[in-house]
Amino acid sequence: MVDVVFVLMLFFMATTGDKVTEKELRIALPSGQSQGGENIKTPIIIDIGSDGNVFVNNLQMGNGPKDRQLLQLRELLVRSLDAAPEDPVIIRPAPDARQERVVDVLNACAATKKVKNLSFS
Predict the structure, then answer these.
(1) Is residue 87 part of a domain?
(2) Which is more confident, 25 or 2?
(3) Alpha carbon of 91 to those of 7, 11, 121: distances in Å?
(4) Would residue 39 count as lying in a domain?
(5) Domain containing residue 51
(6) Element containing residue 56 per DSSP (H, E)
(7) Beta-carbon-side half-sphere exposure of residue 24 (alpha carbons within 13 Å)
(8) Euclidean distance between CA atoms 47 and 59, whole angstroms
(9) What's the mean per-residue pLDDT of the chain?
(10) What is the pLDDT of residues 67-115, one digit of tens each?
(11) Which among 68, 77, 105, 110 has most CB atoms closer than 10 A?
């Protein structure tokens, strides 16, 4: 029994000597206040349905799946990106959407020559 107490005493003496001292970390935390110079980027989300219809904010663009030019989409992109040129464009095709329709949307984005941030979701 004495040997167990002796081992415990050695254990506690050895571990108390390795006490970690806390040091000050220099971290710049955000203040929670927005700075006036920040631009809020609003994404332009283009949905492509499985039937080939193209929607932006639940508004149908074009005259259905046969409209390959998507002039309404081009006009909307030009107007939106003239106001905020850094806004991202996100294309969200349905899992069973035809790749041809995705290419039509990409061509419409490229035709505007204003889309800088393009991604798929």
Answers:
(1) yes
(2) 2
(3) 67, 62, 6
(4) no
(5) 44-120
(6) strand 54-56
(7) 2
(8) 10
(9) 86
(10) 899 999 999 999 999 998 989 999 999 999 999 999 999 999 999 999 9
(11) 77
Strands 89-93 and 44-48: parallel
| Contacts of 3 by beta carbon, 8 Å cutoff, 6+ apart | none
18 falls within a domain: no
Q: 72 and 111 in contact (C-beta within 8 Å)?
A: no
Report residue 20 as tokens. Answer: 């970690």
Q: Is the pLDDT assigned to residue 16 strictly greater than 80?
A: no
Say if CB 91 and CB 120 are below 8 A apart: yes
Instruction: Tell me how many domains the chain contains.
Output: 1
CATH number at residue 76: 3.30.420.270
DSSP state of 70: -
